[in-house]
Task: inverse folding
């Protein structure tokens, strides 16, 4: 019976009272958060030219990250199942089928397989060298596309530091020429510019550095898998001469 009274009409006013008392606190929190957002926008506007450069670097960071996330995938370097499909077609009486499958994959491994099929009468060393050149060129091309992230990670903190220095110079000028020590409000502009530039530079540089290392190791992983599959195909399709010690294809170092 007591349980029903607590959950019944006598308990409802207490619950409603709690909600009513909590409502001003919730509204106050929302107002503070809204004010903080407005202050942040104002500080960004007061950041000067350094903030404009930092925003430009952040746009570059986002654009490169999205492009690499969309295009630096396994299907662009070493698609799953392509090597097995090529093995099944290698002895096919119609070489055009293997060329079509390799071309349609639009990948580094596909272009290497197409090259190997076109050079099937050549010795192992010749084909291995040509396949290595193709892999090296394409892996460097992938690496070059996310090199901009390294530039952003290096330049953004320096730009933020420059903005900080400019802001502190303005703050000390206020102290020297406008008696800022007697009026702390006059120092707010210079100090705000100094702090917001430092924060903005680091906020852009840290994720850019993280994404650069992520793409770097992602490319290295694909390079290892590509090397293993190409070496396996070379050993199966092109028997190395016993008189010549032909090394395996190596390409991982191009991804670092």
Result:
């Amino acid at each position: 019976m007591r349980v029903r009274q607590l959950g019944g009409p006598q308990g409802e006013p207490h619950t409603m009272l709690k909600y009513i008392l909590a409502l001003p606190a919730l509204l106050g929190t929302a107002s503070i958060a809204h004010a903080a957002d407005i202050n942040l926008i104002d500080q960004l506007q007061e950041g000067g030219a350094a903030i404009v450069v930092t925003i430009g670097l952040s746009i570059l960071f986002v654009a490169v990250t999205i492009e690499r996330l969309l295009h630096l995938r396994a299907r662009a370097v070493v698609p799953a199942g392509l090597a097995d499909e090529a093995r099944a077609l290698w002895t096919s009486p119609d070489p055009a089928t293997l060329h079509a499958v390799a071309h349609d994959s639009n990948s580094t491994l596909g272009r290497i397989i197409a090259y190997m099929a076109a050079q099937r009468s050549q010795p192992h060393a010749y084909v291995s060298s040509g396949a290595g050149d193709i892999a090296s060129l394409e892996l460097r091309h992938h690496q070059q596309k996310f090199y901009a992230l390294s530039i952003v990670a290096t330049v953004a903190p320096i730009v933020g530091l420059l903005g900080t220095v400019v802001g502190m110079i303005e703050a000390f000028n206020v102290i020297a020429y406008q008696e800022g020590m007697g009026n702390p409000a006059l120092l707010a502009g210079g100090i705000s510019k100094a702090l917001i530039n430092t924060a903005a530079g680091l906020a852009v540089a840290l994720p850019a550095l993280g994404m650069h290392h992520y793409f770097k190791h992602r490319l290295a992983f694909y390079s290892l898998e590509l090397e293993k599959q190409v070496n396996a195909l070379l050993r199966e399709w092109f028997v190395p001469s016993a008189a010549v010690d032909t090394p395996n294809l190596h390409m991982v170092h191009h991804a670092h």
Remarks:
- The chain has two domains: 1-45, 49-255.
- The chain has ten helices and no strands.
- Confidence is low (pLDDT under 50) at residues 1-38.
- The longest helix spans residues 188-237.
